[in-house]
Protein backbone atom coordinates (compact mmCIF):
# COMPACT_ATOMS: atom_id res chain seq x y z
CA UNK A 1 0.00 0.00 0.00
CA UNK A 2 1.37 3.44 -0.95
CA UNK A 3 2.07 5.89 1.87
CA UNK A 4 -0.67 8.31 0.72
CA UNK A 5 -3.23 5.50 0.36
CA UNK A 6 -2.20 4.12 3.75
CA UNK A 7 -2.66 7.58 5.33
CA UNK A 8 -6.15 7.99 3.79
CA UNK A 9 -7.12 4.48 4.87
CA UNK A 10 -5.97 5.32 8.42
CA UNK A 11 -8.17 8.44 8.46
CA UNK A 12 -11.17 6.35 7.41
CA UNK A 13 -10.46 3.88 10.24
CA UNK A 14 -10.36 6.76 12.76
CA UNK A 15 -13.78 7.95 11.56
CA UNK A 16 -15.19 4.40 11.75
CA UNK A 17 -13.65 3.97 15.22
CA UNK A 18 -15.46 6.99 16.66
CA UNK A 19 -18.76 6.26 14.85
CA UNK A 20 -18.63 2.73 16.27
CA UNK A 21 -17.74 4.20 19.67
CA UNK A 22 -20.79 6.52 19.66
CA UNK A 23 -23.07 3.60 18.71
CA UNK A 24 -21.52 1.49 21.50
CA UNK A 25 -22.08 4.19 24.15
CA UNK A 26 -25.75 4.56 23.14
CA UNK A 27 -26.12 0.77 23.06
CA UNK A 28 -24.84 0.66 26.65
CA UNK A 29 -27.24 3.41 27.67
CA UNK A 30 -30.25 1.60 26.20
CA UNK A 31 -28.92 -1.88 27.19
CA UNK A 32 -29.12 -3.14 23.61
CA UNK A 33 -27.22 -6.44 23.92
CA UNK A 34 -27.18 -7.11 20.18
CA UNK A 35 -25.47 -3.80 19.39
CA UNK A 36 -23.15 -4.14 22.39
CA UNK A 37 -21.90 -7.55 21.22
CA UNK A 38 -21.51 -6.11 17.71
CA UNK A 39 -19.71 -2.85 18.51
CA UNK A 40 -17.72 -3.55 21.69
CA UNK A 41 -15.18 -6.00 20.15
CA UNK A 42 -14.66 -3.60 17.23
CA UNK A 43 -13.11 -0.97 19.50
CA UNK A 44 -9.79 -2.80 20.12
CA UNK A 45 -9.90 -4.44 16.68
CA UNK A 46 -10.11 -1.09 14.85
CA UNK A 47 -7.23 0.24 16.96
CA UNK A 48 -5.15 -2.78 15.93
CA UNK A 49 -5.85 -1.95 12.27
CA UNK A 50 -5.04 1.72 12.88
CA UNK A 51 -1.79 0.87 14.65
CA UNK A 52 -0.82 -1.50 11.83
CA UNK A 53 -1.34 1.35 9.33
CA UNK A 54 0.67 4.04 11.14
CA UNK A 55 3.25 2.21 13.25
CA UNK A 56 6.86 2.05 12.08
CA UNK A 57 7.71 -0.78 14.51
CA UNK A 58 4.46 -2.76 14.84
CA UNK A 59 5.22 -3.99 18.36
CA UNK A 60 3.63 -7.33 19.17
CA UNK A 61 2.96 -6.19 22.75
CA UNK A 62 0.52 -3.57 21.50
CA UNK A 63 -1.51 -6.21 19.67
CA UNK A 64 -1.44 -8.51 22.73
CA UNK A 65 -2.74 -5.68 24.95
CA UNK A 66 -5.64 -4.99 22.61
CA UNK A 67 -6.40 -8.69 22.20
CA UNK A 68 -6.88 -9.06 25.97
CA UNK A 69 -8.90 -5.84 25.96
CA UNK A 70 -11.20 -7.41 23.36
CA UNK A 71 -11.65 -10.55 25.49
CA UNK A 72 -12.23 -8.47 28.64
CA UNK A 73 -14.85 -6.33 26.87
CA UNK A 74 -16.78 -9.43 25.83
CA UNK A 75 -16.61 -11.06 29.27
CA UNK A 76 -17.80 -7.91 31.04
CA UNK A 77 -21.02 -7.75 28.96
CA UNK A 78 -22.99 -10.44 30.85
CA UNK A 79 -23.95 -9.63 34.44
CA UNK A 80 -22.97 -12.87 36.12
CA UNK A 81 -20.21 -13.71 38.59
CA UNK A 82 -18.53 -16.38 36.46
CA UNK A 83 -18.04 -14.11 33.42
CA UNK A 84 -16.91 -11.33 35.76
CA UNK A 85 -14.26 -13.63 37.26
CA UNK A 86 -12.88 -14.64 33.85
CA UNK A 87 -13.09 -11.02 32.76
CA UNK A 88 -10.96 -10.00 35.73
CA UNK A 89 -8.37 -12.66 34.76
CA UNK A 90 -8.27 -11.38 31.18
CA UNK A 91 -8.03 -7.81 32.46
CA UNK A 92 -5.09 -8.89 34.65
CA UNK A 93 -3.13 -10.10 31.62
CA UNK A 94 -4.11 -6.94 29.74
CA UNK A 95 -2.81 -4.71 32.53
CA UNK A 96 0.43 -6.71 32.94
CA UNK A 97 1.28 -6.37 29.25
CA UNK A 98 0.27 -2.70 29.34
CA UNK A 99 2.75 -2.05 32.13
CA UNK A 100 5.47 -4.03 30.33
CA UNK A 101 5.05 -1.92 27.18
CA UNK A 102 5.02 1.34 29.15
CA UNK A 103 8.18 0.38 31.07
CA UNK A 104 9.75 -0.59 27.75
CA UNK A 105 9.04 2.90 26.37
CA UNK A 106 9.43 5.02 29.52
CA UNK A 107 12.49 4.75 31.76
CA UNK A 108 12.24 5.86 35.40
CA UNK A 109 15.27 8.01 36.15
CA UNK A 110 14.29 9.30 39.59
CA UNK A 111 12.38 6.99 41.95
CA UNK A 112 11.47 9.68 44.53
CA UNK A 113 8.76 11.34 42.35
CA UNK A 114 7.60 7.87 41.32
CA UNK A 115 7.01 6.73 44.92
CA UNK A 116 5.45 10.08 45.89
CA UNK A 117 3.00 9.73 43.00
CA UNK A 118 2.25 6.04 43.65
CA UNK A 119 1.50 6.17 47.40
CA UNK A 120 -1.65 8.39 47.26
CA UNK A 121 -3.08 6.18 44.50
CA UNK A 122 -2.41 3.08 46.60
CA UNK A 123 -4.32 4.68 49.47
CA UNK A 124 -7.32 5.53 47.25
CA UNK A 125 -7.63 2.12 45.60
CA UNK A 126 -7.12 0.12 48.80
CA UNK A 127 -9.57 2.30 50.69
CA UNK A 128 -12.20 1.48 48.04
CA UNK A 129 -11.19 -2.17 48.18
CA UNK A 130 -11.56 -2.34 51.97
CA UNK A 131 -15.02 -0.75 51.79
CA UNK A 132 -16.38 -2.96 48.99
CA UNK A 133 -17.88 -6.44 48.79
CA UNK A 134 -15.41 -8.28 46.53
CA UNK A 135 -16.14 -11.97 45.75
CA UNK A 136 -13.65 -14.38 47.33
CA UNK A 137 -12.58 -15.83 43.96
CA UNK A 138 -11.52 -12.33 42.78
CA UNK A 139 -9.97 -11.11 46.05
CA UNK A 140 -6.26 -11.50 45.25
CA UNK A 141 -6.71 -10.45 41.62
CA UNK A 142 -8.31 -7.17 42.71
CA UNK A 143 -5.44 -6.55 45.16
CA UNK A 144 -3.01 -7.11 42.28
CA UNK A 145 -5.04 -4.76 40.05
CA UNK A 146 -4.88 -2.04 42.69
CA UNK A 147 -1.10 -2.37 42.91
CA UNK A 148 -0.75 -2.21 39.12
CA UNK A 149 -3.11 0.78 38.89
CA UNK A 150 -1.07 2.68 41.48
CA UNK A 151 2.21 1.85 39.69
CA UNK A 152 0.71 2.85 36.35
CA UNK A 153 -0.41 6.19 37.75
CA UNK A 154 2.91 6.71 39.51
CA UNK A 155 4.88 6.19 36.29
CA UNK A 156 2.69 8.56 34.27
CA UNK A 157 2.52 11.35 36.86
CA UNK A 158 6.21 11.26 37.80
CA UNK A 159 7.39 11.21 34.17
CA UNK A 160 5.11 14.10 33.25
CA UNK A 161 6.33 16.06 36.28
CA UNK A 162 9.98 15.52 35.30
CA UNK A 163 9.46 16.13 31.57
CA UNK A 164 6.15 17.46 30.23
CA UNK A 165 6.77 16.72 26.54
CA UNK A 166 4.11 15.44 24.10
CA UNK A 167 4.90 11.76 24.74
CA UNK A 168 4.58 12.04 28.53
CA UNK A 169 1.48 14.25 28.20
CA UNK A 170 -0.25 11.58 26.11
CA UNK A 171 0.81 8.91 28.60
CA UNK A 172 -0.57 10.93 31.53
CA UNK A 173 -3.91 11.56 29.80
CA UNK A 174 -4.33 7.90 28.82
CA UNK A 175 -3.40 6.63 32.29
CA UNK A 176 -5.78 9.06 34.03
CA UNK A 177 -8.54 7.81 31.72
CA UNK A 178 -7.57 4.18 32.48
CA UNK A 179 -7.66 4.87 36.23
CA UNK A 180 -11.01 6.61 35.89
CA UNK A 181 -12.28 3.60 33.94
CA UNK A 182 -11.09 1.22 36.67
CA UNK A 183 -12.83 3.28 39.35
CA UNK A 184 -16.12 3.35 37.42
CA UNK A 185 -16.02 -0.41 36.73
CA UNK A 186 -15.09 -1.00 40.38
CA UNK A 187 -18.05 1.04 41.60
CA UNK A 188 -20.45 -0.62 39.16
CA UNK A 189 -19.37 -4.22 39.81
CA UNK A 190 -18.73 -4.11 43.58
CA UNK A 191 -20.65 -1.13 45.00
CA UNK A 192 -23.80 -0.72 42.90
CA UNK A 193 -24.41 -4.32 41.86
CA UNK A 194 -28.08 -4.09 42.84
CA UNK A 195 -28.71 -0.82 41.01
CA UNK A 196 -29.35 -0.19 37.34
CA UNK A 197 -26.06 0.71 35.61
CA UNK A 198 -27.67 2.77 32.85
CA UNK A 199 -25.27 5.68 33.41
CA UNK A 200 -22.18 3.90 34.68
CA UNK A 201 -21.68 1.55 31.72
CA UNK A 202 -21.86 4.32 29.06
CA UNK A 203 -19.45 6.36 31.19
CA UNK A 204 -17.08 3.38 31.51
CA UNK A 205 -17.14 2.76 27.75
CA UNK A 206 -16.53 6.44 26.99
CA UNK A 207 -13.46 6.37 29.23
CA UNK A 208 -12.37 3.05 27.68
CA UNK A 209 -12.70 4.39 24.12
CA UNK A 210 -10.77 7.59 24.86
CA UNK A 211 -8.12 5.89 27.03
CA UNK A 212 -7.16 3.36 24.36
CA UNK A 213 -7.15 5.91 21.56
CA UNK A 214 -4.85 8.26 23.52
CA UNK A 215 -2.68 5.27 24.49
CA UNK A 216 -2.41 4.37 20.79
CA UNK A 217 -1.29 7.97 20.10
CA UNK A 218 1.26 7.70 22.91
CA UNK A 219 2.79 4.53 21.41
CA UNK A 220 2.94 6.09 17.93
CA UNK A 221 4.52 9.25 19.36
CA UNK A 222 7.13 7.20 21.25
CA UNK A 223 8.07 5.39 18.02
CA UNK A 224 8.45 8.73 16.20
CA UNK A 225 10.65 10.01 19.03
CA UNK A 226 12.92 6.96 18.78
CA UNK A 227 13.20 7.40 15.00
CA UNK A 228 14.24 11.04 15.40
CA UNK A 229 17.00 10.24 17.89
Description:
- Helix content is 81%, strand content 0%.
- The chain contains nine helices and no strands.
- The mean pLDDT is 86.
| Tally of contiguous helical segments | 9
| SSE sequence, one letter per element | HHHHHHHHH
Please outline the major beta sheet.
Answer: none
Q: How much of the sequence is in beta strands?
A: under 5%
The termini sit apart by 27 Å
Tell how many strands the DSSP assignment holds. Answer: 0
Helix-strand category: mainly alpha
Work out the radius of gyration. Answer: 18 Å
Helix content: over 70%
Uncertain stretches: none
Shape: globular
**Average pLDDT:** 86
How would you summarize the topology of this molecule?
Blueprint (H helix, E strand, L loop, with lengths): L2 H27 L3 H7 L2 H13 L5 H16 L5 H25 L5 H20 L8 H24 L3 H25 L9 H29 L1
Brief overview:
The chain is 81% helix and 0% strand.
List keywords for this structure.
mainly alpha
Amino acid sequence: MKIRDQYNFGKIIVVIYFINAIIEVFAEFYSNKFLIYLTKPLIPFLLMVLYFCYSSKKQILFFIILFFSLITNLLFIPSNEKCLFYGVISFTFHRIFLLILIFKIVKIKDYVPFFLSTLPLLFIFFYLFAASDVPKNSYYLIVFHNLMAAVLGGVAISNYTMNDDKQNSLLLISVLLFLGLQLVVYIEKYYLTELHSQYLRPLAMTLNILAFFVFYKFVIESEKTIQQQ
